[in-house]
Amino acid sequence: MLSGIKKSLFLFAALLFFMPAIAQVEVTQLYVENKINPTGIDVLYPRLSWTLESSKRNMRQSAFDIRVSESLESLQKGVDLIFSTGKIPSDQSVFVQFTGNTLKPGRKYYWQVRVWDQNDRASKWSTPNYWIMGLMGPQHWQAKWIEAGVQDRSSRQSPIMRKEFALQKPVRLAVAFVTARGMYEAEINGKRVGDLYLTPGWTSYNKRLQYQTFDVTDLLNEGKNAIGVTLGDGWYRGKLGFNPKPDNYGKELALLFQMQVIYTDGTTEQIISDGSWLSSRGPILSSEIYDGEQYDARLEQEGWSKPGFVDVDWAAIRLANYPVINLVTTENEPIRKQEKFSPVKILTTPKGEKVLDFGQNLVGWVQVKATGKAGDQIRIQHAEVLDKEGNFYTANLRTAKQTNSYILKGGGEEIFEPHFCFQGFRYIKVEAYPGELKAENFTAFALYSDMQQTGSFSCSDDFVNRLQHNIQWSQRGNFLDVPTDCPQRDERLGWTGDAQAFAATAAFNFNVNSFYAKWLKDLAADQAADGSVPNVIPNILDEQCSPGWGDVATIAPWVMYRTYGDKVLLENQYESMKKWVKYIQNSAQNNLWKPKQSFGDWLFYRPEDDNSGRAAATDKDLIAQCFYAHSTQLLINAAKVLEKNYEVSYFDSLLTHIKDAFLHEYVTPAGRMVSGTQTAYVLALQFDMLPEAMRADAVERLVQNIHDYGDHLTTGFLGTPYLCHVLSRFGHSDLAYQLLLEKSYPSWLYPVTMGATTIWERWDGIKPDGTLQTPGMNSFNHYAYGAIGEWMYGVAAGIQSAPEVPGFKEIQIKPVVTRRLNFVEAEFQTYYGKLVSHWQWEQGQLLFQLSIPVNTSARVFIPAQSVDQIREDGRALRSHRDLELIGQVDGYVEVMLGSGDYEFQISR
C-alpha cells in the first residue's frame, strides 16, 4: 500500500516537472490607443497596452507575445496571423507599438497578448479584443457631401434623408463612416446606428471635423436594405456664444456617409452618399444647444428608414462641394447615455408650478412618456435650483431657454426625448402634461463623453465625500466632448482657464488621456500665427489670451504626460507649447509680461464690507509673470523628455531672466510682494518664483493671511488649485486640512452644506440667507473649484507617479495623515492596474494599506518616526525580505515595494 502511494507521488512529481510552468499573472484588460475595443483607429501603427493582475507580490513582466488576425477563430488557433511578435524580452506593457504590415481601412482586427513573469513563466493568452480601422486619409473617401433638397434657411426644421440598396451575398463585415456639417443620427432598417449621441461632436470644424466609425454588420439584411439619417443644427450652425448668434461655421446642413461591405467571399462593395439619395422634412421643428427642442410627432413618417417605404413625395438631394481634407477620426471617447434618474419628488411651488426634482444636478435630458390626443403639447423647462421661496429659477440661464416641447400624434403611449441638444438641470417644470403627473413617466439620462472612471476618494467626513461626489459629477456634466465651463446657460464653451486648473484632478477621476489629446489638437489648430491662444477652444469668441487661460497650452500636455506617460501627446503638442511661450516672450518688455487682457484670479472672494485693507484682489501682472515662468518651466520639462537639448538650454536661460524680473518688479528686498493676497503668495511659492532664502517668510505671510480671514480661503480660479499643495509642501498640512474641512463661507464644503450636488461657479452661489448670487454669472455646475481633488488624491492619500518616471510605472506614495480624519482611502486605475492607498486610525494605531499594480514598483513613505514602530502583516518591518528598507526622513520611513497588497501597522 505504502509503495503504491510513493509510486503515485513520484509520477505526480514527474508530471509537474515536465509540465510547462504557468505564470502567476493574468492579462485582464487590453487597450488600443488608450481605448477598449475602439472603432475608427487612424494611425498605421497603433499602440497596444494591457493590464496584469496577480495575487502574488513582486510580480513583473519579463517578456510579451502579441498576435493579431482578421479572424477571431484564426486568432484563437494561432493560424493565419497578420502579425505575431513572438516572445519579446521586455517589461513594457503600455504603449507597445504595432509594427506589422500595413493595416487596411475599415478592417476589423482581433488581438491578444500573453506575457512571461520574472521567473520566465508564461501566462495564458488574454481574452481577445479588437479594433476597427478608420478610413485613414482623405484619399479613401468616395462618398459625396449631400444637402437636403428641402432645406429652408429661414427654418430650423431638421431634414431627413434616405437611400435604399440591395445586398446579394452574405456579409462578413460592414463598417459605416459617417459625419455631418451639423449633427446627425443614422438608422439602418429602422434600427439606430450605434449608441453615440451629439455626433460628430464639437471641433474647430473648418480645420478638424470628426467622423465616426460603426460596425453595422448586424443591422444589414441579405436583400433589400435602407439607410435613414436625420440632421440637426448642433454646434455647427446653432446659436453659440455671448449674445448668441447662429451659423458660426456654416449655413447649410450636410451629410457624408460611406459604408464598406465585405462579403464572406472576400469581395467588397461601397454604399455612399451621392445623388441617388432623397430628402424630406422630419418631426424635429428645431433643436438648439441653448434653447432646446421642438418636436411634432404628427410629422413622423412611419417606416421612413426601412426598405419599401413609399418616398414618391420626397425631394432629390443636392450635391455639395465641401472638402474632406479636414476630416479626422474620433480620437476621444464619444458621448453616450450614462446613468439614469427617476424623480425623487413632485412639487407644487408657491407659484403653483408643477416641478419634478431628480435629486442630482446633471447634464443630459429627460425622457417623457405620455398618452393624449393629437395636438396636445407638453412643455418642459429645465433649471438647476429653486429660489429662496421654493419657486422654479431660470434667471441664471440668461438667454438660454432650455425648453423642450412635444406635440403628440395621439393613439396610445408616446415616448419623447431630445436629439440634438442637452440640458443642465436638477429640476424640470412641466406644463400641459395630459393626465396625472406620475414619476414613472419621467426619466433623466446623463450624457457625457464615455470616459472610464479611474479614481475614487473617500474618508471619514461625509461632507468631504459629498464634495468628491460633486467634483466627479461636475466633470461628467462638463466633459461633453469638450471641457465646457458650464452646461446650462448661453455659454457652454471650452474655456481654457477652467480646463487647465482642473486637468490634474480630471485625470485622477477619469481616463482623460484621449479626451484632452483631441481637445488640445483643436487648441493647436485655433492657436494664432503669433502663438496666442484663444480664451475658448473651439474658438468662437475670437478673444485672445489671458494669463492662466492660454497657459493650458503647456499645463495640460504636461499633466497628461505625467499621468499617462503618453509621449506621443507631448510630441504632438510641443510646437504649440513653444509657440505660446514665444508669444509671451515677444509680448514682454524687459522680461516682464504685462498683457493687455487678463481675467486675473477670476471670481476670488470679495467681501463687500471689507475695509481692513486685506482685499483679496491680486495684481494681474504679477499673476501673468508667475504663469509666464510656469509655462517656460513646463516647456523645459517637455524639451528634456523629447531630447531637444538646445531648447532646454535656451529656455532655461530665459526662465532665469523671467524670475529675476519678477523679483525686481513685484517683491521688496524684505520679501513682501506688491499684492499680499493668498493667491500672490501661493503662485510665487508653487512656481518657485522666490529664492529659497525668501520662501519661509512668504509662507508665514500666506499663513497669516489665511488666519486673518478666520482660517478661510480667498482664492479664485488661478490660486485655488495650488493653495493646499503649497501649505503641505511647506509644513502646514494641518492648515490645508482645516481649509478642506471648513464648512462656513467661503470654503469647499459651504456649497455642500447648502445642498449642492455639483461644484458651483461662485463660492456663494446661494448665500447663507438663501438668496442667490447675481444671475448674470452664477452657474451651479462649474468644475474649476473642484481642483482640490488633486490634493485629496495626491497629498491626503499620497498617490503620485514617481518624479522622474511618468505614467505610474514607478509610483510614489506619501500620505499626509491627520487626526482630523479617522481614515482616507483613494483608488486610482492606472494603465498597469489598480493602485490603492488607505490609512486609518484604529485603537491608537495607524493602519496603512496599499495595493501596488503588477509590473510596477513603489517608493512608499510610511508615516512613522522609527522603523521599529512598523509591522507589516503582523511581522516586524525589518524581518521582511520582499521589500527594501531605504531609511528615515522627516517623519516617514521610506521603503521600496514591488506589486501586491500590503498592510502596515504603525504604533504611535
Automatic annotation (TrEMBL):
Keywords: Hydrolase, Signal. Residues 170-338 form the Bacterial alpha-L-rhamnosidase N-terminal domain. Its EC number is 3.2.1.40. Pfam families: Bac_rhamnosid (PF05592), Bac_rhamnosid6H (PF17389), Bac_rhamnosid_C (PF17390), Bac_rhamnosid_N (PF08531), Ig_Rha78A_N (PF25788). The keyword Hydrolase applies. Residues 452-793 form the Alpha-L-rhamnosidase six-hairpin glycosidase domain. The keyword Ribosomal protein does not apply. Residues 348-447 form the Alpha-L-rhamnosidase concanavalin-like domain. GO terms for molecular function: alpha-L-rhamnosidase activity. Residues 798-873 form the Alpha-L-rhamnosidase C-terminal domain. It comes from the Bacteria. Residues 1-23 form the signal peptide. This is alpha-L-rhamnosidase. The lineage of its organism: Bacteria, Pseudomonadati, Bacteroidota, Bacteroidia, Marinilabiliales.
